[in-house]
Amino acid sequence: MAAPLRILVTGAGRGIGRSISTKLLAQGHQVALCARTTSDLESAVEGRTEGFLLITSDVLAPGAAESAIEKVISTWGGIDVLILNAGDGVSLPLDKTTDEVWDRMIALNATAPFKFMRAAIPQMKKANFGNIIVIASRAGLEGEPNVSGYTAAKHAVVGLVRSAAAELSKYSITVNAVCPDFVDTPMTQRSLEAAAERTGKSLDEVRSALESKLVGARFLTPEEVADAAIAFIGKSKTGVTQLLEGGR
Predict the structure, then answer these.
(1) Model pTM above 0.70
(2) Which of 20, 132, 178, 190 has the fewest CB atoms lying closer than 10 Å?
(3) CB 33 within 8 A of CB 12
(4) If one looks up domain 6-181+221-239 in CATH, what number appears?
(5) Is the pLDDT of residue 61 over 60?
């Protein structure tokens, strides 16, 4: 393979981020895994002795983005790929969405990716190369009920991707967003539990009703979303991709 790329993945301890990280490590890249829980990070690299960097950090903490990017640069001499996966959603009706919930959704799903981009771009400009990939959501392209904060934040980050892509292409930096439908992750499980509590239906009933509306009548797997994100690495294509079903 070509020379290994220096890659930072946020939200790397679980779900999509973990799948992205393990796939990239298997391909021989140097991967910095960033997440809040050290044990999750250690589990993700179990059995490996090299090629990775573990960064225990909350992306919402002041200076978290700058610190993480600096650790990658100081360890490996630069950063080639930034994959922004950390995020979360809260399922609440609009009139039950508190200021605290709204502010957290915007901070986690839009502001944090902005800060990581801002911190990485100077080094990428210097190298005249870089790939930035955001794991967004179909909720960033369409309206979704009972997730107003999450939907607004994902719309914001998709707009950020489009603006950054237009601005940075002259530096050979591509910026892309992957916008999957529902993925079988702990976050989706929490949303299903909230919907079951809100409607009085069983968890199985809520899940089946939702899956019946999806392309393929199933949730995506983290591995499918990981493959879609990884496909952007090293490509000159830039923009927003909607992923509705694995392989499509």
Answers:
(1) yes
(2) 190
(3) yes
(4) 3.40.50.720
(5) yes
